[in-house]
């Protein structure tokens, strides 16, 4: 077997080294003199010993097994897996950004503070909010921060004991109700109507003095624009509740409208979705939150502000929910988003959304004859199909997703939203060419034809990946995450 197919532990041989360290020029110190006995090893750690070529080939081979936006189409619905322009990476690696430390004197960080301040200003325009904080680490963290602001606001008004309910549509992202529960609220689900939008009558029945707020994204997770959003905002505001905007679907509306114009009071944005910074793989995200002026006192501290010609950190906000992230957020991600916004400009961001909506509707139009379409109407940046037609022939949506892997595509989001049976949620983003969209559509059509003519080729997929079909239940319940 070639060594790059084995674990590092399996190709390890004693005394092989991938580096050569210089002779130490400082006195040797016994660890037992500095640490108590329980913290000092009696034997060497069991680490692999390999040469530099072996090390490089191993990790290069592993990277080639990964799938990402740099090596294929990634139509993962509601995740906006757009291409990450490499100019963003170049700027993030500038010495003045990459080699600073947040504990330096603020006078030596003025350039970085200026970038963060200007990014906040840009995001205020894009979101229609009055103030923005870059602290949250990613989307769900931004949700939680927004909910803590809702909590603090009602507490200041001596109403928190009564306002315990957060209203969440049944098409919402799963993080919405989870974040609300973690923040200490009770979740009330609001059903969708036959056209996939929030049922206004059901909303009216649920709002009242106990309403803390409504969490919503627009367009929603079905890719449908909530056309009654202004009325929804009025319904919630009339009873003293606040509106929270989940920014996951901002890619559909940038430069066209804003959450602020729709009546939202709080918004979180996903810089790792809408603004092209790296996304997925457990890497850093960024989930800034924006608020209307009356909620500014509750934003996290310290806040980056401009005082004359200097940028300063201000923590003098007694009503603040406090610091929620070490230092000032994920700075490197923010540098990438800033670069993207300055590269695109206002007109460019509008073009992004227009193209994303065009691409989604083009794919929807091509695929609807072959898959069930529970909401056959003009969509925004994403759309949902159903594999119910294929299920009647013994093929599930998960089989279709696995068959897609054979053609070099990452699968769309499946079985979400939960209100669509055998759901396939597809988001092509604006960065793909018509040729790519057509190739993907042709493969999806081919799979639909295979289901009718030779379903076993789909139910036994994938056939050509390095790892074939897994026992997913066992893998989830009994994961093996270490080498013995």
Structural summary, described in words:
The protein is an alpha/beta fold. It is built from 17 helices and 12 strands. The protein has helices at 8-11, 31-34, 52-65, 86-92, 95-98, 110-127, 139-156, 175-182, 200-206, 229-238, 259-262, 331-367, 388-391, 397-405, 434-453, 456-459, 472-477, and strands at 131-133, 165-169, 186-190, 211-216, 242-247, 266-269, 289-291, 303-307, 310-314, 383-386, 413-414, 423-426. The protein has a 7-stranded mixed beta sheet with strand order 1-7-6-5-4-2-3, sandwiched between helices. The longest helix is centred in the C-terminal third of the chain and has 37 residues, at 331-367. The two termini are 20 Å apart. 40% of the residues are buried.
Provide the β-strand percentage band: 5-15%
Largest sheet: 7 strands, mixed
Task: State the strand order across the main sheet.
Answer: 1-7-6-5-4-2-3
Coarse morphology? globular
Compute the number of helices. 17
Total strand segments: 12
Helical coverage, percent range: 25-40%
Radius of gyration over all CA atoms, rounded: 25 Å
Oligomer: single chain
Average pLDDT for all residues: 94
Content-based structural category = alpha/beta
Low-pLDDT stretches are none
What is the straight-line distance between the termini? 20 Å
- Element order: H for helix, E for strand: HHHHHHEHEHEHEHEHEEEEHEHHEEHHH
Question: What key phrases describe this protein's structure?
Answer:
7-stranded mixed sheet; alpha/beta; 3-stranded antiparallel sheet; globular; about 35% helix; about 475 residues
